[in-house]
Specification:
By secondary structure, this protein is of the alpha+beta class. The protein folds into 2 domains: 145 residues, Chloramphenicol acetyltransferase-like domain (Chloramphenicol Acetyltransferase), CATH 3.30.559.10; 231 residues, Nonribosomal peptide synthetase, condensation domain (Chloramphenicol Acetyltransferase, 2-Layer Sandwich), CATH 3.30.559. It is 33% helix and 23% strand. The chain has 13 helices and 15 strands. A hairpin with a 4-residue loop joins strand 3 and strand 4. The protein is globular.
């Protein structure tokens, strides 16, 4: 029987092209349960998701013109979470499977090669994996609502579509941005990733954001920008400084009423230029909040979508072999892919689960890895009245985390710190 295969969605085309021997774009979503995980039941639950979520049980293949995803021959074997989060996914591993299902004590984690999906799509998969595991272990009757799907049904066509293609404007937005200030430090040996988690009360975070008249994402971006501005001030004189911008992914499903489980998000770079003068925290909050509001409109996003979609329609590029496409996309990425931001803050916001699941799920988290050209990143997820702010880095220096979490405390938000570094 012929295997199923899937074209890479518009956002996913870049990820195989820019992967390196020591880096590829991977993210993690996880759930911590009330009891230790039974690996055999977790394997059974994973196997039962294969029919409902076929676009995740795939391998990465290289064709003459494009990379593509092909149905995997072997099941995804659940494995013990033996190392630090987001260990490197080699090309050899991607030819076997493009996701990992991991367990450690009471935690279930799934790591995705970003070509499969984004944080929202990954969260849907994790929620269904945990739901099926709890059904097998405790005999729960979990309603098929919200994030939870009916595993006996085939996937809906809208879940597998490339939603970028149907929402592009006729005219593409420009890509040019002035490069932002970049953090730097001493690289860790053997690709180690230091993860520092700040656990805060969600209501306290919301109250503080409302006090400044902004969203939680804008508040966190303002705290991050203020921290990075202070680090740049200590390093170089004002005339030699660069803009400080925070890259914010925008979930486009909400703007365009999409149901896709593949990638459907784009980023906005928001921030300020310290060369123009000092900013009070209130000014940072307002500036970043309004930049987000202006940027995350359907019209503006449609222009940005078109900037990614239209190159695919150029005949010469379509007919070029994949190695030439890789050179072109790598060059574009180096010029504009990451240069506009200092680091990411990716916020999934609240992740709702059916009421019957909540006593069994203690916490949920979202972790994105460092980007190719900068060493720090931040991801946020709220669940059960707590917000988990995960700051990851590939360098030894921890100054950014210290400044960021200390500032939250100064704002009246108590922070409990956890780390994988002893």
């Amino acid at each position: 029987m012929q295997k199923k295969w899937y074209r890479l969605d518009t956002a996913a085309l870049i990820f195989p092209a820019i992967a390196r021997r020591d880096w590829c774009n991977v993210f993690r979503v996880s759930a911590s349960l009330s009891e230790e995980v039974d690996p055999a039941l977790l394997q059974r639950a994973a196997d039962e998701l294969r029919r409902r979520f076929p676009s995740y049980f795939v391998t990465l293949r290289k064709g003459f013109f494009w990379y593509y995803l092909e149905e995997s021959e072997r099941p995804v074997q659940v494995q013990s979470d033996y190392a630090y989060p987001l260990t490197y996914m080699s090309s050899r591993e991607l030819r076997r499977n493009c996701l990992r299902i991991l367990y450690y004590k009471n935690r279930i984690a799934v790591e995705f090669f970003h070509a499969l999906t984004d944080g929202r799509g990954g969260s849907v998969f994790l929620a269904n994996l945990v739901a099926r595991y709890l059904e097998l272990k405790y005999g729960l009757a979990i309603p098929r609502e919200g994030l939870i799907r009916d595993l006996s049904r085939e996937p809906e066509s809208e879940e597998l579509e490339d939603s970028f293609l149907k929402n592009a404007a006729e005219v593409a937005a420009g890509r040019k941005e002035e490069p932002s200030y970049r953090l730097h430090g001493t690289r860790e040996a053997n690709g180690f990733r230091t993860l520092t988690t700040g656990v805060v009360d969600t209501q306290a975070l919301l109250d503080t954001a409302h006090r400044y008249g902004v969203t939680v994402t804008a508040l966190l971006a303002a705290v991050m920008a203020e921290s990075i501005i202070a680090m740049q001030n200590a390093e170089r004189p004002r005339r030699r400084q660069r803009p400080v911008k925070i890259t914010i992914p925008v979930d486009l499903r909400r703007l365009y009423n999409s149901r896709t489980l593949r990638n459907f998000s784009l980023v906005i770079n928001v921030g300020v230029d310290p060369r123009y003068g000092d900013y009070r925290f209130e000014e940072l909050c307002r500036s970043i909040y309004h930049q987000l509001c202006l940027g995350a409109t359907p019209q503006n996003m449609a222009g940005m979508i078109a900037a990614n979609v239209q190159p695919q329609q150029i005949i010469a590029l379509r007919l070029a072999p994949v190695f030439l496409k890789n050179l072109v996309m790598d060059g574009v990425y180096r010029r504009s892919g990451e240069s506009g931001g200092s680091l990411n803050i990716s916020n999934i916001t609240n992740l709702p689960l059916p009421e019957v699941m909540r006593p069994y799920v203690q916490r949920m988290e979202f972790i994105i890895g460092p980007q190719r050209s900068y060493p720090n990143n931040c991801s946020v997820l709220s669940y059960g009245g707590k917000t988990y702010i995960n700051m990851i880095r590939s360098i030894r220096e921890s100054e950014l985390e210290r400044r960021f979490f200390s500032r939250l405390v100064e704002l009246g938000i108590a922070v409990e710190i956890e780390s994988n570094r002893r």
